[in-house]
């Protein structure tokens, strides 16, 4: 074998035959494969329908009798801090090697498809590990498989079955047949399809502009729980779409007060802005290309102002920052990453 360890990074949503082809190649070249499962800690969405534990089971089921040679670890997203993400990967690999009792001179490589675009760019971030470049396998992508899984169309399951290992397909079939989570995600998928269809006739894909408010008061952050799709039941920062004739700052304040009935005058809010940032990760919203401007309102001390859920929120809470920074799986879209940007915790 050419390597003691090969590192394989992916989201595996779900694990399909293309992933299996890469994994088998890695097992032929290395004694053990370190599998880092990305997007760990994300809420269930149509883009991330399966948690880390479920994806680990898929991978082990597909690997069959080689599963003992897999060292699987969760890997968080760092949408707005690629340097921290690279450091996370390096740290996880170092921890795995130490825990596995690897020799100091153990050979480590990275395996993946060196393709154009952002999906393959991460491979260049680890020059210390030789790259094993694998060829494309002609199967449906994970994105296509998710679309078929939630479509409800006749014959959809046959396509999913043809492109996933038997053990994985069994899990997907059971998930589709009896999981309450699947029912909620199917409703979300139908909502998103209709939403995107409403502007499908535009001459070019639109870019939406939103504004969000990060309000921190006496060690607490103000969050709303979403009343309806998309993201029904998830916690979010107060915010929404910018209206014609208003600035993004005024939109953030308006949405903040509409959703929370926060008892703070707009003039005081404007004077309490301690930071602002544009968040434009291309895939941050399933609704389409959406760029948000977030404003950080800071009130270091004092009693927490009264609030009341209204508009798009079915609940509103002042949540201690220490608690909020442990709630990544309960946040809508990239709102956890936005909060983390302003208050730390990375």
Mind explaining what this structure looks like?
The protein is α/β, with parallel strands linked by helices. It folds into 2 domains: 178 residues, Rossmann fold (3-Layer(aba) Sandwich); 136 residues, Alpha-Beta Complex (Nucleoside Triphosphate Pyrophosphohydrolase). It is 37% helix and 23% strand. The protein contains 12 helices and 12 strands. Strands 6, 7, 8, 9, 10, 11 and 12 form a 7-stranded mixed sheet that branches. β1, α1 and β2 form a beta-alpha-beta unit. The longest helix is centred in the N-terminal third of the chain and has 18 residues. Its cofactor is Mg(2+). Belongs to the Nudix hydrolase family.
Question: What would the keywords be for this entry?
Answer:
346 residues; alpha/beta; Rossmann fold; Nucleoside Triphosphate Pyrophosphohydrolase; 2 domains; seven-stranded mixed sheet; five-stranded parallel sheet; globular
What's a concise summary of this model?
Helices cover 37% and strands 23% of the residues. With 346 residues, the chain is of the alpha/beta class. It comes from Caulobacter segnis.
């Amino acid at each position: 074998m050419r390597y003691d360890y090969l590192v394989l990074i992916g989201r595996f949503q779900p694990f399909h035959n293309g992933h299996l082809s890469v994994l088998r190649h890695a097992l032929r070249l290395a004694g053990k494969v370190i599998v880092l499962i990305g997007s760990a800690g994300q809420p269930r969405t149509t883009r991330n329908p399966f948690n880390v534990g479920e994806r680990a089971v898929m991978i082990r089921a597909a690997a069959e009798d080689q599963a003992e040679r897999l060292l699987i670890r969760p890997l968080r997203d760092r949408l707005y801090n690629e340097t921290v993400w690279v450091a996370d990967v390096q740290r996880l690999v170092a921890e795995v090697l130490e825990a596995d009792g690897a020799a100091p001179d153990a050979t480590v490589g990275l395996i993946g498809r060196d393709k154009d675009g952002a999906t393959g760019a991460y491979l260049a971030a680890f020059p210390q590990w030789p790259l094993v470049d694998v060829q494309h396998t002609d199967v449906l992508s994970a994105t296509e498989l998710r679309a078929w899984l939630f479509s409800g169309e006749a014959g959809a399951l046959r396509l999913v079955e043809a492109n996933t290992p038997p053990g994985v397909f069994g899990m997907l079939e059971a998930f589709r047949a009896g999981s309450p989570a699947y029912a909620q995600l199917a409703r979300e998928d139908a909502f998103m399809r209709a939403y995107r269809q409403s502007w499908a006739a535009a001459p070019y894909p639109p870019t939406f502009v939103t504004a969000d408010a990060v309000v921190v008061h006496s060690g607490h952050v103000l969050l709303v729980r979403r009343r309806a799709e998309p993201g029904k039941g998830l916690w979010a920062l107060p915010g929404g779409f910018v209206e014609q004739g208003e600035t993004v700052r005024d939109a953030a304040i308006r949405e903040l007060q509409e959703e929370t009935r926060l008892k703070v005058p707009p003039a005081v809010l404007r004077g309490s802005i301690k930071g602002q940032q544009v968040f434009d990760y291309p895939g941050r919203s399933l609704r389409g290309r959406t760029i948000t401007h977030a404003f950080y309102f800071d009130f270091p001390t004092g009693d927490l102002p009264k609030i009341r859920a209204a508009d798009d929120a079915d609940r509103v809470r002042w949540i201690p920052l220490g608690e909020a920074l442990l709630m990544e799986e309960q946040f809508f879209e990239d709102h956890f990453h936005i909060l983390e940007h302003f208050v730390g915790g990375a």
